Amino acid sequence: MKILTSNKAFWLLLAICVITILPFLGLSDYHTKGEPRESIVSYSMLDSGNWILPRNNGGEMAYKPPFFHWSIAAVSSLCGGHVTEMTSRLPSAIALIAMTLFGFMFFAKRKGVQIALLAAFITLTNFELHRAGANCRVDMVLTALTVCALYCFYKWYEKGLKGVPWLAILLMSAGTLTKGPVGTIIPCLVVGVFLLLRGVNFFKAFLLLSAWAILSLILPFCWYVAAYQQGGEEFLALVMEENLGRMTNTMSYDSCVNPWHYNFVTLFAGYVPWILLVVLSLFTLTYRKFSIQPAAWWKRFTAWIKNMDPVDLFSFTSIVIIFVFYCIPQSKRSVYLMPIYPFIAYFLAKYLFYLVKKQSKVIKVYGSILAVISLLLLVCFIIVKCGLIPETIFHGRHAQNNINFLRAIQNISGIGSLLLIAIPTFLGIYWWFYQRKYALSNRFLYAIVVLTMGLYLALDGAYQPPILNSKSVKFIAADIEKIAPENEGVIYEFIEESLHAAGDPVHYFELNFYLHNRIDNFYQKRPSEGFLLIGTNDAEKYLPEFEKEGYQFELLYESPKPVLRQIAKIYKFVKQAQPENSEVTPTAE
What we know:
Mean pLDDT: 92
Shape: globular
Strand order of the largest sheet: 4-3-5-7-6
Distance between the termini: 70 Å
């Protein structure tokens, strides 16, 4: 196989990243609370001109610092001045592409183009990073900033700890402005442990990294001061809750609380499909006779650490420290572990080249499995398209959602979608001829990458958008806009679940975005007229109480499907004058 030069491989990688990610960002409507919750902050920035601490969703402050929202607002300004699904997801996509390219350059310079290119492809095609790179959430941007800061710190280490690592400091500043002090803590903690393992004096490492950490906090500190001037004690309490409370398990409410083994499970799940290759390969290795000798194990482990290649040790340290760090808090999410994924990709790339060198048949077996999946995907599509799966097979609480998914797949049409569906099929067929014709070599690894990317193209461009759009409530927002136009009054929401929420209150995030941030808070504002957005159960329970306060309601609309687990209703209301001291305040049971 002809080895590409570093420069050619870089441009090839960039072209593949752009082609396989960017065209599909805007195909899916918002269908979860997370994406519109973040994008509406940027919407508020552009709408109000407040880029420090804008209020949204009826007066709520953003739960994260603003760098990610600044990025969305900046991209949206360049793309017509409106926040869309495409512009809100673009910063995450750019972050994934930049991290992939940065990682390629880092490892290519130190370990060669082949390992670096394969590691970059693995980084690009594992499920967790691929999903986060097409999502309007802060996690992909934080991951890219953290990982790239670590790369910059290693370059500083290679220079003998001389000079100031300005780029690493700037990246940590942006990381802290993305999700809090963790953007500075993790890079400094990883590099600190690495320097100690490389024999650097503790006080020297501590003082230098402390200085870089302080410098990285200057810009975030300026924002925190400005935000405190606007938000006061409410903002300060939120900062303490989201940072100190989350790490010390003292939050006033449960947030993504998961057991100790969650991180192990989510790491394996996040590395689909590559984890399947690793598992299969374990059955082909030869193992030494096992004996319980803790002292001998520790001696061999310390010797291994001492003699490890610096790049390997740096990558290994990054994986271990970040993983352990996120095992400490009760709050655990799969995306927290994403900064270790590029370093795992490096070791996995080395392992795959080792398997090829050993002529392991598992490479061909794994490729054949992907080829079969590619072919079965087309077969399943044809079966669904022909209406051979009756809707009556679906039962239970999620039956209607499954029926909607089935109908969405049946309605897939258009030459572009059909071509994307055909790509993995053609690649799967080609694989069968390819693996029979050629002896196992490094080319097979890149062929597996091509198979994987073919599957992602079909999923991202053809299958996933209609399925996810069937979950969206965008059409409900369009209906509401017609019967409750902006020039006829403000829309207010009432959600019992949010009345006494200790934190992270529930809102109609999707509807609010598609209604252009029109939804205000009925419970807090007690307006005299307008439109009320409320669920069926909440309406039955609380409208009689509101009527005692003098409100009169006229039902205008009921959503054809549940929103926040209830059928959403729109009422037009007015409040009549009433005697003093007759107001009744509803309370949650």
